[in-house]
Amino acid sequence: MRTQNHQRCEFILGGQRSGKSRCGERRAADWLAGAPGRRAVLLATALAGDGEMRERIERHRLDRLERVPAMATDEDCLDLAAALRRHAAPDTLVLVDCLTLWTTRWLMPLEGEPADAARWQAACDALVAALAEAHGPVVLVSNEIGLGLAPLSREARHFVDALGRLHQQVAAVCPQVTLMVAGLEMAVRR
């Protein structure tokens, strides 16, 4: 599936601490430096469920502020499709960080019941449709977690499978796919 926005979409995958968020931030900084009047906005998907996660989010926010001070942040984006439609514009780069935490919030929420298969697929389809319709550049970040051992629990296997299917949907509409390994960019598709 190719999109109207296909020239401007990039999907950045990598393991934990592989440099994928920094890579996305570099894309935003380069975009901002490319011409006057440009904007960048981060759609943050993390939710602080405990003290350690609150510290991680705050550290990430401070690091990002130092590296890309002009980037705005839209926090707690559970409805990514709506947030993408709200912010996507020809003069605005949208950075989504990250799809893994977004998936966690849908399938393994801290409170309440996980989304059933139909609701989850509807959320994924809405995100992919919003991405295909975006009127500006979009960079999406996610953890590639399917390279290791098969998880032992049914819930964890379901999560890995769901995230892998989402990755395939997103990669289908992003002509640029980058894999981050030890802070190094590997072009999967250009």
Describe the protein in words.
By secondary structure, this protein is α/β, with parallel strands linked by helices. It is 45% helix and 21% strand. The protein has helices spanning 20-34, 51-67, 80-87, 99-107, 117-133, 154-173, and strands spanning 9-14, 39-44, 72-74, 92-97, 138-143, 176-181, 184-189. Helix 3 (80-87) packs parallel to helix 5 (117-133) and helix 5 (117-133) packs parallel to helix 6. Mean pLDDT is 92; it is low at 1-6.
Q: Which features would summarize this protein structure in a list?
A:
disordered N terminus; 190 residues; seven-stranded mixed sheet; alpha/beta; 21% strand; 45% helix
List the helices and strands and how they pair.
Elements: E1 9-14, H1 20-34, E2 39-44, H2 51-67, E3 72-74, H3 80-87, E4 92-97, H4 99-107, H5 117-133, E5 138-143, H6 154-173, E6 176-181, E7 184-189
Parallel strand pairs: 1-5, 1-6, 2-3, 2-4, 4-5
Antiparallel strand pairs: 6-7
Helix pairs in contact: 3-5, 5-6
Number of strands: 7
Q: What's the gyration radius in Å?
A: 16 Å
Can you summarize the main beta sheet? 7 strands, mixed
H/E topology pattern: EHEHEHEHHEHEE
Detail the poorly predicted runs. 1-6
Task: Give a short synopsis of this structure.
The chain is an alpha/beta fold. It is built from six helices and seven strands.
